[in-house]
UniProtKB/TrEMBL annotation:
It comes from Pleurotus eryngii. Residues 321-338 have a biased composition (Basic and acidic residues). This is Uncharacterized protein. Keywords: Membrane, Transmembrane, Transmembrane helix. The chain crosses the membrane at residues 12-37, 49-70, 98-120, 127-147, 167-188, 217-238, 244-263. Residues 315-338 are annotated as: Disordered. It comes from the Eukaryota.
């Protein structure tokens, strides 16, 4: 193939790309941890899960970068005369290559577990909603396990051989479908809640309390990873060596998506708080925001990870003419819903 990227060049570019993205990820990770501690976003159970999940993903990404540097030194420096860069990279059965791919798989598994859990929380802990995404994750784990085993058995230079093509295509397809599905479920749930709130007159669609900016942040952040998976699927189907470059970018990209989402939502919540705190103080006490988790806390600085759409129950209010009627307190707004 005339346009084929030489494998030795693809190897160097892949490490360079991962290091570049890891630098971006590291800066976002530090900012995320700082915001979580400063704004006390790890007080609830779900927030703690996402906090420790974020730490675990950063540790995996750091190990992946370190292992890639080790492989680069062995292939291009220490074993350059004895083996050569191309033969070294094509030897899929080497322990460092298997470990490198295993870390890649573990990173995506952790991310998939967190996105499924987020979907579970957003849908009020509805187990039925996450059955299909969970099954896709289990299938992905099995397919990755088989592919890692095949790496140790295939002959030299058969990354695009028939033995691996089936399983690699399965892995990429499952990851793509699973992420599109969970992101779609989260987005649809938030959009439906937004529409219901507007219909009952809590606020207008352009209100500061609108959830549409949160919805946009989630979709935009998730699309980074989804588009990358789509490119990876296309390059692997074309048997192009550029797929190595995109594959190495997956690990830091996953971390970037999660940290970027947390930072943007946190800053959005803080701006809403600054703009509405005076207005909120003038409301009746039972209409004010309470520290109940999701989108609104006493500091208005929590994340989308703890969303709980359930109302906390009806209460009696009285209109100007003296007639009583029931309204329901909406936890996600801190306002009354008829």
């Amino acid at each position: 193939m005339a346009s084929q990227l030489p494998l030795d060049i693809a190897g160097i570019l892949s490490v360079w790309m991962e290091c570049l993205l890891f630098g971006i990820y590291a800066s976002l990770f530090i900012q995320t941890v700082f915001l979580m501690w400063k704004q006390r976003l790890i007080r609830t159970g779900p927030s703690k899960i996402f906090f420790w999940g974020t730490l675990l993903m950063f540790l995996i990404a750091a190990m992946h970068v370190a292992l890639n540097f080790y492989r680069l030194l062995r292939g291009y420096v220490w074993l350059r005369e004895e083996v050569g860069p191309e033969n070294y990279l094509l030897d899929l059965g080497r322990w460092d290559n298997v470990a490198h791919n295993a870390l890649n798989a573990i990173m995506t598994w952790v991310a998939d577990c967190l996105i499924i859990y987020r979907c579970f929380i957003v849908w009020n802990r509805n187990y039925y909603i996450v059955i299909v995404p969970s099954l896709l994750l289990i299938m992905s784990i099995i397919a990755n396990g088989i592919a890692l085993k095949e790496f140790t058995d295939v002959p030299l230079g058969t990354i695009f051989g028939a033995t691996l093509v089936h399983w690699m295509n399965t892995i990429y397809a499952l990851a793509f479908v699973q992420n599109v599905m969970t992101t779609g479920l989260i987005a649809w749930r938030i959009w439906r809640q937004e529409k219901e709130s507007v219909n009952v007159g809590i606020y207008s669609a352009d209100s500061r309390s609108s959830l549409l900016p949160i919805l946009r942040i989630i979709v935009e952040s998730a699309m980074i990873y989804v588009v990358e998976l789509l490119v990876l699927i296309i390059l692997y189907a074309l048997k192009h060596n550029a797929q190595f470059v995109v594959q190495e970018a997956v690990v830091p990209t996953v971390g970037i998506v999660f940290t970027l989402m947390t930072i943007r939502i946190s800053k959005r919540s803080y701006k809403v708080h600054c703009a509405t705190v005076t207005e909120d103080q003038s409301r009746p006490i039972q209409w004010r925001a309470r520290s109940v988790g999701p989108m609104v806390t006493t500091e208005y600085t929590t994340t989308v990870d703890d969303i709980d759409m359930k109302p906390i129950g009806p209460f009696q209010v009285q209109d100007d003419e003296g007639s009583k009627y029931e309204e329901t307190y909406d936890k996600t707004r801190g306002r009354a819903v008829v």
